[in-house]
Design goal:
Blueprint (H helix, E strand, L loop, with lengths): L1 H7 L23 E3 L5 E3 H8 L28 H9 L19 E3 L6 E3 L9 E2 L1 H14 L21 E3 L4 E3 L1 H7 L11 E2 L22 E3 L4 E3 L1 H6 L7 E3 H21 L1 H74 L2 H10 L4 H23 L17 H8 L11 E2 L5 E2 L3 E6 L9 E12 L4 E4 L4 E2 L7 E4 L7 E10 L2 E2 L6 E4 L21 E3 L5 E4 L3 H5 L1 H5 L7 E4 L8 E8 L5 E8 H9 L30 E7 L2 E3 L9 E3 L4 E6 L4 E6 L4 E7 L6 E8 L2 E5 L1 H9 L1
Antiparallel strand pairs: 1-2, 1-5, 3-4, 6-7, 6-8, 9-10, 9-11, 12-14, 13-14, 14-18, 15-16, 15-17, 15-19, 19-20, 19-21, 22-23, 23-34, 24-33, 25-30, 25-34, 26-27, 26-33, 27-28, 28-29, 30-31, 31-32
Helix pairs in contact: 9-10
Length: 724
Amino acid sequence: MAAEVRRNSIVPIKNIERELICPICKELFTHPLILPCQHSVCHKCVRELLMLSHDDSFDAGSECSMPGSPRSRVPSPSMERLDRLVRSGSMSSPGWRRNSVTPRVTAIPCPGCQHDIELGERGISMLFRNFTLENIVERYRQAARAAVAIMCNVCKPPLPPQEATKSCMDCKASYCNECFKLNHPWGTPKAQHEYVGPTTNFRPKVLMCPEHEMEKVNMYCEVCRRPVCHLCKLGGSHANHKVTSMSSAYKILKEKLAKSIHYLISKEDQVRTQISDLDVLIKQTEENGQLSEREAIAHFDRLFETLQERKTEMLRSIDQSRNRRLDQLKGQVEEYQGMLENSGLVGYAQEVLKETDQSCFVQTAKQLHVRIQRATESLRTFHPASNPCFDEFVLDTSKEEMLLKEMCFGGVPDPPLIDLSRSRVYNEATICWRLSDDHIATDHQLLEYRRLAICRVCEDGVDSGSWRTTERVYGASTVVCDLEPDSLYAFRVRSCRSSMYSPYSPEVTFHTPPAPAFGFLFNDKCGFSAERLVLSKRRDSVESQAGMAFLLASERVQTGSYIGLDYIIGDMGITQGRHFWAFRVEAHSYMVKVGVASDTKLLEWFHNPRDTSSPRYDQDSGHDSGSEDACYELSQPFTLLTLGMGKLFIPKASASSRVLPMPQRVGVCLDYDAGRVYFYDADTMRCLYERQVECSGTMYPAFGLMGGGRVHLEDFITAKRLTF
């Protein structure tokens, strides 16, 4: 079965041409070199990348500086000469001059992975030749010219050269049977030469170290993933690297390669299925593209039809107005023309004036006077019958043109991503997101959210309603108000550009606190020890430090003094209702107590004298175990939970796990009316611990610090107080 698999796994050599093409010259590899990133490039192509200019070339056998592919130029010098040049340092000397082969730079971009390859001072002399790839290319060339035989290099004229049957890797020549026997007689050192089938590719029998030319490579550096010699390991650049024997590396890499090949072959049916799926996707893409084209054409046709209708209507209105005005003006012209034609009216009036009979004159002159007066009035107050200006038909289409120009069809914008590290959800949610790296700016964003019903069986959210959309957001964050307490909300956002919406971002869920947020700052008046506690200017952060009294008592501390906690409280108290606040405790903190305490207990803590140098003072054990919490009675006027050294300590009386990893943010909820306090992981709103507390008088958020410790109140908790 294995033999059958191997037979089926043989890929014809004619099918591997794409693997034998240099990524620079796009032709079959010629003397390929292995770059540090394990990609191969022709020796000549690497050298061209490093040349100062096309003028800096080899003298007699150099390439010309004509543009075009490297393979279209004059052939380069022999490989042996190039190797001698690079190993002698002529291409990697510290200085350089024009008309030399010294490169200006020793860093090139890999054409395969685009990573910058640093070759160092030795340049390409540090690179190995890929002899395995050379042999494969040669076998491919032989398969490509299957009918062309390799001829014997030794046959003497006048006899024609015979077809070669062997090639000697030591002599670097090909021989027919007779010539091979003559040149490799039994009993001579040449009889021990290594020979292979006919080939034109002769490589060294042993791979030499490029850094130490006289040393063979016999080890493999697992850090650099390249063969090295023993000098490289002893005092070279691989001295501190992990190396393995070449035989071991050969065995491991060969097994890995064989397994990988076998895996690919075994997945042939899967690959064919995926190719079929891709063919279906190609067909669907073509069909959907054509459908989109038809829809776009239909949309524009409707626009064109609408514009054509409006154009026809406007032209009709202009034509009607023009005809009406022309008729009016022409009528006025006829009227005035009649005045000219009736110039005999004046002569007739003059004749009437000669009438001496008064009765006859009055009878005739009355009608004549009306006609004369009308003509006089029209001359005195001349007005055109219509306005020749068509200003009312001048269209301002700048807005419409701008709208058309803003119709961008450069593609749907990429969706933004909601930033969990910057988003916070309390009674209000501050949701922040990162916009895509698209160079075209978006117009606005839309945030959608909905409340999820919490499944008590799987403790997960299930769909419970439709999405609600915020107003347009022209930045990278927004605030959502009036969220229900102790609820699970899902959020998503999308971008809009030129009326084209991006897909929605992945949904993220946040659990709101079990009670409204309680805003406060640290109190710098009540019992605050400025000697041992450092308060930030905004009073939203406090840090403990060693006080002078502790330093003065250092000798007695060595003999067993107990150190007390330094307490600090919030500047706002609670007398009713349910309230929630959150904070962060630095991971390096030695010990921090967090919780609530009544005003009566605070008086006891702050006003009883303390002497850190006295071994009799035993307010707190100073250990991180939190064991002192276990000795409290069921109901006390305070409750403090211990955090420190990256841990959260649950009192022993609790049924929960005693030691938990410290959450990134800790939340505290006090139900004053029920007399109960809860401690939460504020990121997931998972309740970590709860207990009864005696709520007498006014209850305050309380913190106790000892050793190096730091507490930061959450911004949302302090925002309203800082604003006030």
